[in-house]
């Protein structure tokens, strides 16, 4: 027993933010890559590679939000296609790790080589990239707390903002010292930073796909609160997980006391889960005595 399946969709509400950010980043990517190749700057090329990752990640996020809101005509996707956003975030993690690995490998390959890097393009392109990334951060920040999909794109752009700062720093260091090695050092620093952000996001993605309890949800507190609902004598077989960002769901069995009204118990339990723990969709089974199947279950 439970309520309807009508949910607000966080990622869909912020789709326009993703679209604008995608356009800005895609336009700048080509410019940075061309200047990086001409100037011979690994920092610019690595940042362009990260920009390419941004383009792919933002594009995947856009597609995911479209899929997530698509109507299911098969009747098989009983929870809809909301998990598409989580898969898109996982893809973003892989792209970020790939870019990081490329930068580090390329930096190691350059050890001992005499590389000539022009500082002018580093400073100009880095400054332009910083402005674009700051605009994208401002756009995506509004949805990063509500959608793991938008958060993945936000972290991508945040890492690229650090990359733009690194490119500017590399330009200054190369110009002041005349040593091209700073270009490689900054490139490695960018790669490591991106990898760390990717791992953190990857842990969140795996937690959702592994159907872990939502972050910050205390299951013992949930049981205690449900047991305080008038008419509830016992709570067992409680499960809670995240379908996608902003959509926490749960199932539980409620054993009622003598003379309790099952409908009143159900309404009180749903209200507690929704208002106290932020779980808007709960499938609850009300039992007069614990079902035999629950006692016999092996998992």
From TrEMBL:
Keywords: Ion transport, Membrane, Transmembrane, Transmembrane helix, Transport
Protein name: Cation transporter
Main location: membrane
NCBIfam families: CDF
Keyword Ion transport: yes
TM ranges: 20-42, 48-65, 86-105, 117-140, 152-174, 180-200
Protein family (similarity comment): Belongs to the cation diffusion facilitator (CDF) transporter (TC 2.A.4) family. SLC30A subfamily.
Gene3D superfamilies: Cation efflux protein transmembrane domain
Ranges for domain Cation efflux protein transmembrane: 19-209
All residue ranges annotated as the Cation efflux protein cytoplasmic domain in the record: 214-287
A GO term, aspect molecular function: zinc ion transmembrane transporter activity
GO cellular component, one term: plasma membrane
Pfam family, one: ZT_dimer
Subcellular localization: Membrane
UniProt keyword Ion transport, yes or no: yes
Recorded topology in the membrane: Multi-pass membrane protein
